[in-house]
Amino acid sequence: MREGGRKLRRLGIAAVLLLSASVTALGQTGMACGTPTALDDGWAIASPESVGLDGARLCAIAARLKEIQANVHAVVIVRHGKLVFEQYFAGYDEPWGQGGGQHAFDATTKHDMRSVSKSVISLLVGIAVDRKLIASADEPVVKFYPEYASDKSPGWDQVTLRHLLTMSSGMQWDENRAWNDPKNDEPHLGGETDPIRYILSKPIVKPPDNVWTYNGGGTDLLGNILERVSGKPLEAFAREVLFGPIGITDLEWKTYSKNGKVASAVGLRMRPRDAAKLGQLVLNRGTWGGQQIVSPEWIEQSVRPRFQAIGYFSGLFFYGQQWWMGRSIAQEKEVKWIAAMGLGGQRLFIVPDRDLVVMTTSGLYPQPRQGDGALDMMANYILPAVRDDKNKEKP
Fold it and tell me: With contact defined as beta carbons under 8 Å apart, do 321 and 162 qualify?
């Protein structure tokens, strides 16, 4: 009888553990944790296991994010071109023009992309070059602004679009100050009546293509140039040549409240699963659904490391043409990635060696650890979840 009691107790404990695991792995709707929502938006949906990912490991992400107080709002994972995992969380956010507060998120909720917008501008410049709207990225910036000839500072004649793309124009620019510091150049983009004049009047203090300095003013110039060569508002041009062809319809490109100018460098709002399409486009070397959206040559130029990003993210990352390059260590293996990054923890990772795209959004705007949650997920959960990696050593 005592032995039977022990067996019953063991069975009871096993049942409790099984129930606990089931509850952990199931969402409120009864679906498996991270199961993508079917929205008929162009994504093929599959299970993690069908594309060589460990779904149980991915399901542990939510607990980890809560443990480290990452305030992550979305985790979207794409493998082998299929959407295989997405999870959303409520939390503090500061949506453009709405102020800070608690917000809920799901698969249909747009989120601020902030400086992820810069990487999208790079794609749009590449498309404009492909379509001969711009002769090449080596065109001088002043060519597009003849009416500002008397306003530009000396040295601007040597600055090209590529220098703006790589943030190596050499112009005097500082975004590393308090927002209310008049020496912080970034607020002037939205506060000046004529921000183009403000940017072109900045002195060129270093020879172009020598020193990297993070610079949203250069990106706003690129956005304005796209409007000039296309004859269309930036959002309209982007919808026509980029977003529309890859099935992105629910988006906004916000304008500055004071001067009404489009915020090219920071104003994009879109759904995280749509942002992941941009990552897949880059991973596919510019193709989507068999259509070449942007040339593979432009993608290659954009994601080639050109500068050490001194002063940002401890200087550990490299910079290309409005795209970041970095690496993670997962299970004692170095994994390189390409990324678009935005203030607050917006991160779009592209991992060519793993055929993987990861998009995360977050709301840690004023904090230095704003990207830690995304890096933690990549190193300890998402990359280790890959089970069919050709680069893994056989046991």
Answer: yes
The sheet that has 356-362: what strands, in order across it? 82-88, 72-79, 356-362, 346-351, 333-342, 324-330, 318-319, 307-308
pLDDT at 390: 55
Query: What sign does the dihedral 151-190-260-220 (CA atoms) show?
Result: positive
State the DSSP string of 191-247: HSS-HHHHHHTS-B-S-TTS-----HHHHHHHHHHHHHHHTS-HHHHHIIIIIGGGT
Instruction: Give the C-alpha separation, 252 to 346, whole Å.
Output: 16
DSSP 8-state code for residue 146: G
How many Å apart are CA 76 and CA 107, to the nearest integer? 9
> Which pLDDT score, from 0 to 100, does residue 388 have?
84
Q: What is the pLDDT of residue 19?
A: 34
Place of tokens 């695991």: 21
Q: What is the model's pTM?
A: 0.91
pLDDT by 10-residue block (mean), the chain, 395 residues = 39 36 37 90 98 98 96 98 98 94 97 98 99 98 98 97 98 94 96 98 98 97 98 98 98 97 98 98 98 98 97 87 97 96 97 98 90 96 89 40
Q: Tell the burial category of 37 from Cβ atoms under 10 Å away from its Cβ (0-12, 13-18, 19+).
A: middle
For helices 116-130 and 272-283, the axis angle rounded to 10 degrees is: 50
The structure tokens 């983009």 sit at 189
Residue recorded with tokens 């493998």: 79
**What sign does the CA torsion over 205, 211, 213, 215 have?**
positive
DSSP 251-301: EEE-B-TTT--B-TTT-EEE-HHHHHHHHHHHHTTTEETTEESS-HHHHHH
The share of the chain scoring above pLDDT 90, in percent, equals 86
Are the C-beta atoms of 82 and 51 separated by less than 8 Å?
yes
pLDDT digits (tens, 9 = 90+) for 133-186: 999 999 999 999 999 999 999 999 999 999 999 999 999 999 999 999 999 999
Size of the chain in residues: 395
